[in-house]
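Open question from group meeting: does this chain pack into something compact, or does most of it stay loose? Before anyone orders reagents, we agreed to write out a predicted structure and look at it together. Recording both the input and the output here so the notebook holds the full record.
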Amino acid sequence: MLMKAKKSMPDLFKKNKPVFRKFKDIEGQDAGDTPYLWDAYKSGCLDHFPKDLNMGKFLELMAIIFSRFQEHMIVEDYVDGKLVPIALLVAVNNGWLLEPHVQYFSNASKRCKLRTYVAFTKRTKYRKDIGACLYRVPHDTMIMTNRLEQYGLIEYVGKIYNGQPTGNEYLYSTKCKRRSVRSK
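Structure tokens returned:
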């Protein structure tokens, strides 16, 4: 059986790498990371949200959305030499399977997005608290996951026909460090 050769990964992290940190919520006078989300909404990056929300309604909606996910992170990367927030990363974690969802802000370049995907996948691969990471990808964003597959970081595992309103949904996964306990 012939195996595809892995495409060599470019030197994405020569000088630095993206920073993944927990989302800081509003506490007293400190607005935390909420202004970044508000700016993303105002600039049209959060396209699934209703238009013309005031900040109070926006915060209520964000609280509902955040309650559905167990992990919330802000991704920061270097843009023009400065470390700035480029994405919100939320993930469903049921104790075994991690399913991340990323929403990029307007300042995230294609290179920043690739660096984020590669760094997150490498970081997740070595987590000992999860067994696998599942990526659900719509057809229009498959280019990035195909690149990760070429680098040998993820594997294509299947397709859900009409899995999204825009068409098919493609499934990729990464095996992580936690091992299954087999019954005897």
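Observations to bring back to the group:
The longest helix spans residues 110-125.
The mean pLDDT is 88.
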